[in-house]
Design a protein that fits this description.
Elements: H1 2-10, H2 33-40, H3 44-49, H4 70-80, H5 84-99, H6 108-117, H7 122-131, H8 133-150, E1 157-160, E2 164-167, H9 172-185
Antiparallel strand pairs: 1-2
Helix pairs in contact: 4-5, 4-6, 4-8, 5-6, 6-7
Length: 186
Amino acid sequence: MRLDDVKAELGDQIQIEWKAFMLRPTEHGGKSREEFIEYTKLWSRMSETDSRLEVTSPWGSDDVHPSHSLPALAGSKLAQTYGAEIEADFHDRMFKAYFKQNRTISEQSVIVAVAAESGIDATDFEEKFMAQRDELNAQVITDHTAASQRGVSAVPTVVVNDEVAIPGAQDVETYLRVFNDLLEQG
């Protein structure tokens, strides 16, 4: 949401491109339900820093917690192919599905449902998701590898012009200061 504020302030002077970074790349070595619920207690800080962020903390769903982040990120890659507005809506809805609704976003059925909620034909999305899974996964892994090589280890991390990395969720003023400084430098 904060980057939406920055985009609204700076308009066409900036372009935001989402890249994938997997906090849990595989299903192996995941947290137990108890450990995961304990971890989600930290989410309450998110809405303290930006009241527009809707989170349920701790995890309040009977749904199994997500096993890993690759499937949802692959879904985001596919959503990009439907256009920028759909991609942005999918991204926001996936965020809400995980943090607010506590849905299992590593499950294909949930990813397809989020796509449908974003206005994408569910059958079309699911067919493409299944047919292109290897390619979509490879795109996610490429993003992740590039970020890791850059030294990214925090989510979110905003990288500006492949020059400046801003780790962690920052306030709008911090982002604006960095963007404006770079814009002034030309």
